[in-house]
Amino acid sequence: MLESAKKAAAQTPKADVAAQAGILLVDDQEMNLRALEALLQDLGKPLVCARSGQEALRLLFDQTFALILLDVRMPDMDGYETAEHIRRRHKSALTPIIFITAADATPQEVSRGYGVGAVDYIFKPFIPEVLKAKARIFLELFTKTQELRESEARFRALVANVHGALYRRTPGGALLYVSEAIERIAGQPPAEFIEHRRPMADILHPDDAVPLAQAMDKALRDREPYAIEYRLIHRDGSVRTVFDRGQAAGEHLEGVMLDITSRKQAELDLRRAKEAAEASNRELESFSYSVSHDLRAPLRAIEGFSKILMEGSDATLDDRGKHLLTRIRAGAQRMAQLIDDLLSLSRLTRSEFKSGPVDLTMLSREVAADLIRTQPNRIVEFTFAAGMTCTGDARLLRIVLQNLIGNAWKFTSRKPTAKIEVGREVRDGRTVYFVKDDGAGFDPAFMEKLFGPFQRLHTDTEFEGTGIGLATVLRIIRRHGGEVWARGEVDRGATFYFTVSGAVS
Amino acid sequence: MSGREKEPILLIEDNADDAELIKMALTRAGIGSPVEWLDNGEAALAYLEGTGAFENREEYPIPSLILLDLKLARSSGFSVLKWQKQHPDLKKVPTIVLTSSMDPADIDKAYALGAESYLVKPKDFDGLVELLRVKATYWRWR
Q: Which of A156, A155, A152, A178 is nearest to A244 (CA)?
């Protein structure tokens, strides 16, 4: 029993110290040890015996005990001396010691015992119930103390892990308590503020002193929580922004300061980047707008003068001259078309976004009808899904359909008969609209060029165009918070898909 | 030829090509009045006021119509328009703004200052002829 108890105590894992810590019995008389063991075994705690002070100290090296019962009179090292050693050791400094002594102990001896750290005395011959009751009380006390210490340690760890510095302060700005995190924020340990009484004003940005003081006053007066941002000066001289949230607690203030410097900086960087992007966007738009206008002037001259020359030219120009003049005029007209397209693309991003219900089915029918009027002899079979409605800018979405259906119309123009379908399907829970044709298609390898301005996959002799249509579509769909993509193969038709999230730009 | 025919059309236009084309288009539109072309705002103000080189009203009479470009060197088309429409003797002369700007802000401002009409320069010569035939004729004989 004795050996097994010893073993059990030795194997006790640290986490269960409070529950498993046993009782150390120290007596030079084997008989006394047996008697104590017999008496205390039904307390359910491991019992460990030591036959001398030295052995007790040895055991205390690597074991924690909840209680020590210590015989005063022992050879070599007596109880008092053993107790002194026990107290001196950090690990056992707080372990309760009950002295067991003869009934004839003098008051001087008893007070010496208390002097070296005894918590109680048991006089021999002891009354079993008294001994058991005392042992139980001290065991319980040990358990509670241990629990308290663990809970305190957990709390400390928690506080240390909190990203912000917890604090209690006076209205005047003296910190009564502040957690370790303050060192990360201000570069000074808590002791600097608590023990050395450095006031908060010392590390506060001077411009923020007044607003902070006002917030504290208000919190104390109205008994309401506060949340305020202010700047602290780190020991290295850098400025830190903190978000401080707390409330009045009695006549003090309690709260937590969070270091939001990096978040602030990120916000600032983001805002600056956004402003820069917007400015360059505006610049680009106004540039392309004025370029478009300035480019028109010389074209008007080419167009106008060549026209006049053409009309009065019968006598002065031969057929070859007329042919060249026609080529010049065609070039000028084409350039005028490019400028027009560029201008409308630029206007598109400048125009206001007007959101409302849009009937895509109806718009598609109208767009198709316009196309049919331009070439009434073509045989094209149109199909429209019914009830395609969404939320967006009707004027802009009409332009999308004009371009997509217009492309389908254009790229099927070499076929005797063609099919164009405007439809809708649901993919991954969102509505996807599509315009599908069975025309010339495109090489999927050039997919990424499709939506760039002035990018063309076909030559002018194949199909006319300026290459601005799909760039326009992309811009409009993006303003709608949607996406646009395409699928196609050479000579096997093309399908253009788009989504409209209904969100405003 | 009526008296009106002799009164010139004042063309204020800084682009020589455009000025030439407008003159040709006016002829082609059957508007036979002489055209006084000035290529900057300052000269336009001097002509209208009858000062400096334009002192002689016999030689430089008050026009029957002003065709005004907005983008001008030295004093903009707007300031010419504003000055003219506040002048007691000159404000009755109809002014057609003929420009390449389609900016709604320009259009609003031109009408607010008292322009009789606002025309965007057509892309082709035939369009210009047609536009001037209708608009210039209307405003001179209204």
A: A178
| Residue B12 pLDDT > 90 | yes
State the Cα–Cα distance between residues A242 and A231, nearest whole angstrom: 6
Amino acid at B65: L
Which residues in chain B touch residue A308, judged by CB atoms under 8 angstroms apart?
A: 24, 125
Q: A295 vs chain B: nearest CA distance in angstroms?
A: 10
User: Cβ neighbours of residue A29 under 8 Å, at least 6 residues apart?
Assistant: A71
Angle subtended at Cα A358 by Cα A357 and Cα A360, rounded to the nearest 5 degrees: 155
Closest chain B residue to A295, measured at CA? B100
Pairing relationship of beta strands A389-392 and A430-437 according to DSSP bridges = unpaired
Phi-psi region of A223 (alpha: psi -120 to 50; beta: other; left: phi over 0): left
A297/B18 touch (CB, cutoff 8 Å), yes or no: yes
Distance between CA A333 and CA A466 in Å, rounded?
Answer: 12
ipTM over 0.90: no
| pLDDT score, position A12 | 41
In angstroms, rounded to a whole number, what is the distance separating the alpha carbons of residues A183 and A189?
5
Distance from CA of B99 to the nearest CA of A (A): 10
Q: Is B107 on the interface with A (CB under 8 A)?
A: no
- Are residues A297 and B15 in contact, defined by beta-carbon separation less than 8 angstroms? yes
Closest A-chain CA to B14: A297
3 state DSSP class of B115: coil
With an 8 Å Cβ cutoff, are A296 and B21 in contact?
no
pLDDT tens for B58-96 read 889 999 999 999 988 777 899 999 999 999 989 999 999
Q: Which of A293, A296, A308 sits opposite B125 (nearest CB)?
A: A308
Contact A345, A367 (CB under 8 A): no
Instruction: Give residues 84 to 103 of B whose Cβ lies within 8 Å of A.
Output: 100-101
Q: What is the largest CA-CA distance in chain B?
A: 40
pTM over 0.90: no
| Residue A497 host element (H or E) | strand A494-498
